[in-house]
Write a sequence for this structure.
C-alpha cells in the first residue's frame, strides 16, 4: 500500500510515519510538507509543497496513492480566525477534491478532533470549523471516507513543533489519563489505529476516541 501523509512533521503525522515504517503492509509513505522532516527511511519520501490550496502539479503523484491520512492542522491559539479556517477547512477540502479527481478509489482519512460539531453552530472555533470540514467531506461522496475524532493526544515522542500551550499541559497528561481514560489517547496508539483503518472495511464512518482506542490493544 502506498499512502500520503500530511502534517508529517507534527504530533500525529510524524507518529503515523514512524508506525508506517514498521508496517509490512505499507510499501511507501509520501509526506506532503512545507519542509522535509527528520525521519529518514527507504520507505519515506518527502515532497515539499507550498500551496495547500492547489495540487495541480501533484496529480501524477496523487494518482499513485492508495490512501491519504490528513493530519495537517494547527492550534486555534497560534493563528488568526481566518487563517485557522483556511488551514482546517480550505486546505483539506481542496486536497480531498484533488485526490478523488486523481484517483476515485483513494481512501481519505481525515484526522478531525473530539468535540467536532456537526451542527456547525458551536461557539468554539475548533469545533465549528472541524464540523464544517467533516460535513463537506461527507457531501463529496468519497468512496472510502474515514473521519477520526481523537481526544487529547499524549505524545510518545517529543515534538518541537507542538504549540506552547500544549507543552504547558504536557505534565498533566498522566493525571488526565487516570481520571478520564476514555478522553485521552497516546500518539503511537492513535497512529496504529489510523493505519488499521486504512486496511479494514469499517461500517462506522466517524470514529470517536473510545472507538480508536478499541482498535489497538495496549
Amino acid at each position: 500500500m502506498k499512502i500520503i501523509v500530511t502534517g508529517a512533521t507534527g504530533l500525529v503525522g510524524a507518529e503515523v510515519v514512524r508506525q508506517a515504517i514498521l508496517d509490512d503492509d505499507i510499501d511507501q509513505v509520501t509526506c506532503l510538507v512545507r519542509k522535509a522532516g527528520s525521519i529518514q527511511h527507504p520507505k519515506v519520501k518527502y515532497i515539499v509543497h507550498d500551496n495547500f490550496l492547489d495540487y495541480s502539479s501533484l496529480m501524477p503523484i496523487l494518482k499513485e496513492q492508495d490512501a491519504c491520512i490528513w493530519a495537517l492542522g494547527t492550534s486555534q491559539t497560534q493563528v488568526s480566525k481566518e487563517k485557522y479556517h483556511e488551514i482546517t477547512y480550505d486546505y483539506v477540502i481542496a486536497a480531498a477534491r484533488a485526490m478523488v479527481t486523481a484517483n476515485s478509489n483513494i481512501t481519505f482519512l481525515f484526522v478531525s478532533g473530539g468535540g467536532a460539531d456537526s451542527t456547525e453552530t458551536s461557539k468554539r472555533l475548533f469545533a465549528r470549523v472541524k464540523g464544517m470540514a467533516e460535513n463537506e467531506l461527507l457531501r463529496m461522496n468519497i468512496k472510502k471516507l474515514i473521519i477520526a475524532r481523537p481526544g487529547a493526544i499524549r505524545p510518545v515522542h517529543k515534538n518541537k513543533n507542538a504549540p506552547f500551550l500544549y507543552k504547558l499541559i504536557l505534565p498533566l497528561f498522566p493525571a488526565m489519563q487516570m481520571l478520564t481514560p476514555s478522553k485521552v489517547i497516546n500518539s503511537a496508539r492513535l497512529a496504529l489505529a489510523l493505519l488499521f483503518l486504512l486496511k479494514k472495511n469499517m461500517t462506522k464512518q466517524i470514529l470517536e476516541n473510545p472507538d480508536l482506542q478499541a482498535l489497538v490493544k495496549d
